[in-house]
Amino acid sequence: MKHTKVKDLLNSTKTLHEVNAKGWVRTFRNNQFIALNDGSTINNIQCVVDFENTPEETLKRITTGAAISVTGELVESKGAGQKYEIQVSKLEILGDSDAEKFPMQPKKHSLEFLRENAHLRVRTNAFGAIMRVRSVLAHAVHTYFQEKGFVYVNTPIITGSDAEGAGEMFKVTALPFDNTPRTEDGKVNYKEDFFGKETNLTVSGQLEGETFAMALGQIYTFGPTFRAENSNTSRHLAEFWMIEPEVAFNDLDDNMDLAEDFIQYVIKYTMDKCQDDLKFLEGRLLEEEKSKPQADRSEMALLEKLNFVLENNFKRVSYTEAIDILRESTPNKKKKFNYIINEWGADLQSEHERYLVEKHFKCPVILFDYPANIKAFYMRLNEDGKTVRAMDILFPGIGEIVGGSQREERYDVLVEKMKALGIDEEELWWYLDTRRFGSAVHSGFGLGFERLVLFVTGMSNIRDVIPFPRTPQNAEF
Ligand code: 4AD
Ligand code: MG
């Protein structure tokens, strides 16, 4: 007999004579009631064991974490909390779980403890919910772009270029560490390496993505990216997933429209498909916030916050306006910021971004037209000669969730910029070709997938929204 998913059993519209379910025991009480979960839903199905006719030996093996198979009748439940339950006629232990040793006890565990057990934490309610939401969000991303006719492009993971020009890359090499081949002047001789040149893990698929946009019109990437920045924060991962759309003939305003529409779509899609999980996560967040001082608690519950993003336009503010607001702000005047904003040109720290979003505007904000010298080389220079057509989207509780720009499509201006920044033209010959042959206005952005999952799940540490986080000093599993 084929087993039926717990989700389908709970959604059944009628009682059923004989069903089979397989899953893992969450709890077993009174030697009679098993709460069984198979990951298809946050909800467990109650399985009622006929303990008088079940051998003592078997009953002892029904422990938290054990994998079991139950067969029986799906009947209306007499107990509160569920519509249906299984009256078990046959029970099989598929895999024992030593109750004393199984780390996921039916009690509250700290998030730190769960991180150390990332291979088992997914068996808890919270992590099951987070990972299902993550999966549905990923589907929403593809659905959005596919329905709009974007082409999904798989840009390379191993690259020879530094897309962001920030130099925070993991090297990829097959050279030995001892006896490393050297050139005459003592440098590592990458000509003898696997690819015959220096390579690294990609920090962004943008540059390759641009070449495809200049042929296919609208493209998007969705893949892993890597940054060797030593940022031990609740917002940074060394390996994270990024979504990067790139659109020919879009200017910065079109780019902002796309980003806003896209974010609202994927949130709405997920709210429709993950009601039980989001309701659970909302409760979890409320519970967690009880231990915080009033001032640190969020003003809105999770679903209310998500609805707020759907119903309100993102506030579009230029960098110059933002600097004026920050300069006049109370924390700046009272020197509460770690970095005091004195003049135009200052790079914004996350404390400033959070002030703008959480205290000043109280809604998602799109900052645009940043000073050229704090942004990447490929951004389009404005007529003022000092700002570029960059945009960052800032979210409450998250900070930067999107970074993007209109690209510099003018060959001469781009080359001059690269020269000024010491970026090797020969390395990027293929990128410059897009500006040589049929160049056109185009724009794109990158959305950090985990930051989106953070926002939607209401979690506060990015390590808790990716299955196996990679952070400085940590690559377990
Ligand atoms: O702002 P970033 O660096 O932009 C780019 O990489 C551009 N090439 C994107 C483009 O225009 N196609 O990164 C984009 C987003 C950030 O806004 C943030 O959400 C996320 O990627 N991000 C990270 N997420 C987790 N951990 C990190 N270390 C991240 N660094 C960036
Ligand atoms: Mg950025």
TrEMBL record:
Coiled-coil boundaries: none
Reactions it catalyzes: tRNA(Asn) + L-asparagine + ATP = L-asparaginyl-tRNA(Asn) + AMP + diphosphate + H(+)
Main location, first listed in the record: cytoplasm
Localization per record: Cytoplasm
InterPro entries, A to Z: Aa-tRNA-synt_II, aa-tRNA-synth_II, aa-tRNA-synth_II/BPL/LPL, Asn-tRNA-ligase, Asp/Asn-tRNA-synth_IIb, NA-bd_OB-fold, NA-bd_OB_tRNA
GO biological process: asparaginyl-tRNA aminoacylation
CDD domains in the cross-refs: AsxRS_core, EcAsnRS_like_N
EC number(s) per entry: 6.1.1.22
Keywords, comma-separated and alphabetical: Aminoacyl-tRNA synthetase, ATP-binding, Cytoplasm, Ligase, Nucleotide-binding, Protein biosynthesis
Sample GO molecular function, one term: nucleic acid binding
Cellular component per GO, a single term: cytoplasm
Superkingdom assignment: Bacteria
Pfam families registered for this protein in UniProt: tRNA-synt_2, tRNA_anti-codon
Membrane-spanning parts: none
Xref: PROSITE patterns: AA_TRNA_LIGASE_II
NCBIfam families: asnS, PRK03932.1
UniProt similarity note: Belongs to the class-II aminoacyl-tRNA synthetase family.
Quaternary structure (record): Homodimer.
Protein name stated in the entry: Asparagine--tRNA ligase
Gene behind this protein: asnS
